[in-house]
Electron transfer flavoprotein subunit alpha/FixB family protein
Amino acid sequence: MPMFAVLAELKDGAARKITLEMLAEARRLAALSGSGSVGLIALGPMAPEEAERLAHQGADRIYHVEGEALAGYAAEAHAEGAKAALERAKPDTLFMGATSQGKDLAPRVAARLRVGLASDCTEFTLQNGDLVARRPIYAGKAFGRVAWNAARPRIATIRPNTFTPLEPDSSRKAQVEKVPIGPVKARARVAGFERSEGEMLDLTEANIIVSGGRAMQGPENFELLRKLCKVLGATLGASRAAVDAGWIDHSHQVGQTGKVVNPTVYFAVGISGAIQHLAGMSSSRTIVAINKDKDAPIFKIASYGIVGDLYQVVPLLTEEFERALKE
Ligand SMILES: Cc1cc2nc3c(=O)[nH]c(=O)nc-3n(C[C@H](O)[C@H](O)[C@H](O)COP(=O)(O)OP(=O)(O)OC[C@H]3O[C@@H](n4cnc5c(N)ncnc54)[C@H](O)[C@@H]3O)c2cc1C
């Protein structure tokens, strides 16, 4: 009976949305494979009600790894914790988020177990019982299909916002198994975390993103975009040109050397659409481009294009959205 396992991403003891998205895909594949089950691995402190919630979201069995070493995120300790749970659960497949944490952790886990890793996947199929993943390559210009060799588990990281979490089913129950780990000899330790800007969702989890480019001309003009973000409940992004100019922090950068995002709606404001920017956002479901140059490359991938001066268009859009959303 193949097990599709998910490595939960926890924040303050609660599972982040990517965990629920991965559970939904694991459930689908478990059903497709006939008699498959869904495992969930949680590393470190987890709120007491979380196990029940994760069962409602699709987990059949939860492996909760506990130990002092897992008090906060630390790559080496978490890789050891994951290894301990995987040795217990023995899943065929392990999904992890293609998030900052997942990208840090997945290669370490794969290397420790000497198994294959497909990163940043956006689709899975079962071909004669074999898992095949689809993933963007060449900065999103093409897609590749990859399969794993015989070593198990097959590890894949999944791009956030690719799959839709299941409707919670309160009749579902999961067995919880505790997996203890002892002290981990780590070569690095996390000295502390600093919270980045405001109450906005992280770019990789955001449903709506408003990004500004070189045309913002300075940090003060990003206020225009922050207003639009507030009205839409969106997260603020930026092109590298705006980040390199020092107008906004690098944590907002979208693209090849920034974050890869996958929102439902992406606003590209005063961004030309260089290939390195597209690498981070071209899989967005709806792209709205605002640019005064009608030949800007961004219009080639935009679902909606507004040719105009952002300093006129953005305040008008903000006003209209505010009015429409109040009604
Ligand atoms: C190795 C490497 C990695 C890179 N990684 C990234 C990355 O991760 N992310 C990234 O974004 N870039 C990245 N870049 C840089 C990338 O090549 C581009 O230089 C950058 O994306 C351009 O940013 P931009 O679109 O904001 O600026 P520009 O290309 O200068 O475009 C500005 C746009 O604003 C429009 N405009 C000007 N004024 C107005 C106005 N008033 N109203 C409306 N529109 C207006 C212009 O018509 C133009 O299209 C990378 C480059 C390299 C070489």
